[in-house]
Every structure is written in C-alpha cells, then in structure tokens.
Amino acid sequence: MKTLNDVKEDMSALYEAVKNGEIDLKAAGELANITGKYLKAEQLILAREVFLNEANGARIQRPLLRQEADAH
Amino acid sequence: MKTCKKCGESKGLDAFSGARSECKACVAKYDAKYYAENPEKERARKAKYYAENPEKERARKAKYYAENPEKERARKAKWRAENPEKERAIQAKYRAENLEKVRARDAKYYAKYRAENPEKVRARDAKYRAENVEKERANYAKYYASMTDGYVAAKLGFPVKKVPPQLIELKREHLRLVRLLKEKTK
After folding, report:
1. Distance from CA of B138 to the nearest CA of A (A)
2. Taking CB atoms and an 8 Å limit, are A39 and B173 in contact across chains?
3. CA-to-CA distance for B152 and B168, rounded, in angstroms?
4. DSSP alpha helices (H): ranges in B38-184?
5. Which helix (H) or strand (E) holds B10?
6. What ipTM does this complex have?
7. pLDDT (tens digit, 9 = 90+) per residue, A43-60?
C-alpha cells in the first residue's frame, strides 16, 4: 500500500510530465481525479479523528500515517 | 493641643507636621502661594528631586495610583482628550518598541471580541467586503497563489494545526496539478 509521501511523489512526477507535455491530458486528469478521491477518504478519516479527539480525547490509528511512521 | 504661630489657632497635634510650629493648613496655604509665584523654580526643584530619588518617586506614585484609581483614570482620560497628538505619538512609540507584546495583546483582545460579538463581526466584515471589492479580490488572488499551509488546510476543511503535514503536502501537490490541468485544457 502506498503512503501519503509515495502518492505525493507520484503527483509531483505527474505534474512535471503534464508540464512537459509527456502525458495525455485526459489520462493525467483521470489520475488527478483518483488522487482527489483518495484525498477525500483521508479527509473523512481525519474528520473522524478530530471529532473523536474533541469528543472524548480518544485517538484512533490512521493506517497510512502509521505506515509512514514505521518507514522512518 | 498646640497653637499655630501663623494663624494663632489651637489645634490637635495631628494638625501639625512633626515639630513645625505652623499647622498643616497654614503650611499648605503658604506652599500653594509660593508655587504659584515661583513655578519655574518649583519645577526645577521637583525635577532635581525626581532625578536624584527615582525609586522613592516610583514608590510614591505607585502608592498614590493604588489608593486613587478612579481619580487617576479620570486624570489620564482628561489628559488624553486634551493632548490627542501627544497621545498618538506615545502609543506609536510604545507599539514600535514592543511590537510582539502589542500584537499578542491585540490578538487576545480580538479573539475575545470575536467570540463575544459574532454578529457584529460578521456585519462589519460583510460591510468591508462590499466596500472593498477590488482589494478583497486582490487579497484572495494572493492567498490563492500562495498555497500556504493555512490555505491548503482550509481546502481540506480543517485548521492547519489539525492536519498532518504529509496530508498538507499531498493536497498541495494535488492542487498544483489540478490547476495546471485546468490551465492546459482551457
């Protein structure tokens, strides 16, 4: 499974490719769209975490962040 | 009981200062007359005393302020109303010398004001926006182009402190890409 940093690096590479005209705009748009959905999912997890933290101080684990912490 | 050599009245000992033979009232009257007739001399004498006894003077003033807060507030307000230019200069000097302190104080004050007067703040902000459309547009364009952490976090719908930095980085890259794609497909 990719971490947030991996996806970010993919985005940077994609940005450069679009900038240099190395990739079809439609395909790049699709990839950006998928990343948007991925971000939405992360946003929801964060919202849940913030809500739970504010409600009772509990902290739930976020799998992607845990993986990154393990990687470092 | 003691008889005042000046006015000839017999008074209690508390009406006299130490071993003086004139009563406090007569001394005060004499002093007032002398001050009125010799203002320059008096100012110079006081200035010399203050310069030589700064600690004593500070303590005396602090004691007076503590004992007469209302009087002091009124006196200061009167002075400010009568000397607006001087007051502005004093404020500006203080602000320049204590910028961080003043900023923190102002932020605390505005946060409290905002929390206590949300309607007023909303109305004031709306009025400002309506009156400064161009300025607001320029400000937003600057904010949009900056892609600061605060901007990106706001795009995610959270205050910056609550968003992990990795997520901010990813969102920033995504925004950059989406903007580029928009530009290219125009």
Report:
1. 27
2. no
3. 6
4. 39-52, 54-67, 69-82, 84-97, 99-116, 118-131, 133-146, 149-156, 165-184
5. strand B10-11
6. 0.77
7. 999 999 888 887 765 555
